Amino acid sequence: MKKMIALMLVAMLVGIFGCTKEPQQPAGTETKPTGTEPAAKTSWMIGMSQCNLGEPWRVQMNADVKAAAEKQPELTVLFKDAQNDSLKQVSQMEEYITQGVDLIIISPKEAAPLTTVVAQAVEKGIPVIVLDRRVVGDEYTCFIGADNKKIGKAAGEWIVKKLGGKGNVVELKGLMTSTPGQDRHTGFREGIKGSDIKIIFEADMKWLEPEARKEMESALARYDNIDLVYAHNDPGAHGAYLAAQAAGREKDILFVGIDGLAHEGQMYVKEGILAASFEYPTGGKEAVETALKILHGEDVPKEITLDSTVYTADSFK
Predict the structure, then answer these.
(1) Distance of CA 33 to CAs 21, 22, 29, 36, 278, Å?
(2) Domain ranges in the chain?
(3) How do residues 180-239 score in pLDDT, each as one tens digit?
């Protein structure tokens, strides 16, 4: 009897102390003290969506993003090239969203086709910096770019002064379904308003030098008197120059472009190929700086406007 009572007491003690034992943690997990916050994130993945790397200016934009990001060890940037295809760029944006990157920088091919997917990223909590070309509406985190309309107007006013208020001009337009093309056109027309400048030929060369050369060949075949070519980018102006050179007429025509890259527009001005190149900064450095602020939880402006400079032969004296 005494033996049975002793066994019962032992069993009761085991039960009591067994109930108060700390629960076992699964392997590989840690117990966090009550009330502590998770550790702050120290590294981020950025997705860069470039509409087209067939243009030197866009190659430079990617290079500027890469150079700025390499100075920030906490940043990793993935790059995708849509190869001038809006549907491909939408698909690549969807891949970034599915992948769950921390932030997206996009330079859209066209405004309307990319608007919805940019809004989708924002809705899913992924900040989006729209660089250079706009989307429709304001469903993005920040837009960074120069004022294309202002640059186009400045080009128009410079051309009026250069030609003494009159002359025959060819306008080779960038992709007119893109906002820079539209703004560089409308700004230019504002700049020449009230003068006797005549636009005798205009065509959409889609930002591409070969297209610009082909369109300029058509203009040269139709018109014996062309005073100046205004192209929406420097490759377009250079393509027009090559067409005129092949026809033996390059010395009779002035060529003006936009972009002002050191190894392109500025170089063409130094060599006497272009009369002027209006700078359009890539914004790559500014995009990375803004991305860092966003990722660190800082407020940023909805719009950041970049400054522009005009390069002429006088700039290099």
Answers:
(1) 18, 14, 13, 6, 60
(2) 44-146+282-306, 148-279
(3) 899 999 999 999 999 999 999 999 999 999 999 999 999 999 999 999 999 999 999 999
Tell me yes or no: is domain 148-279 CATH 3.40.50.2300: yes
pLDDT for 41: 80
pLDDT of residue 125: 97
For residues 206 and 172, give the distance between their C-alpha atoms in angstroms, rounded to a whole number: 9
240 close to 220: Cβ distance less than 8 angstroms: no
The Cα 85–Cα 303 span in angstroms is 26
C-alpha angle with apex 172: 167 to 174, nearest 5 degrees? 145
Q: For residue 240, how many other CB atoms are within 10 A of its CB?
A: 31
pTM score above 0.90 = no
Q: What are 279's strand-pairing partners?
A: 259
Task: Please give the structure tokens belonging to residue 268.
Answer: 């063409």
CATH number of 44-146+282-306: 3.40.50.2300
* DSSP bridge partners of 277: 257, 311
Residue-by-residue DSSP string for 234-279: HHHHHHHHHHHHHTT-GGG-EEEEEE--TTTHHHHHHTTS-SEEEE
Which segments in the chain show pLDDT lower than 70?
Answer: 1-40
Taking each helix axis as running N to C, give the angle between helix 179-192 and helix 148-162, from 0 to 180 degrees, rounded to the nearest 10.
40
Q: What is the pLDDT, as a whole number, of residue 201?
A: 98
Contact 61, 67 (CB under 8 A): no
Q: Please tell me the distance from the alpha carbon of residue 241 to that of residue 217, in angstroms, as a whole number.
A: 10
Residue 39's pLDDT is what?
55
The reply to whether 148-279 shares the fold of 44-146+282-306 is: yes
Q: How far apart are CA 243 and CA 218, in angstroms?
A: 9
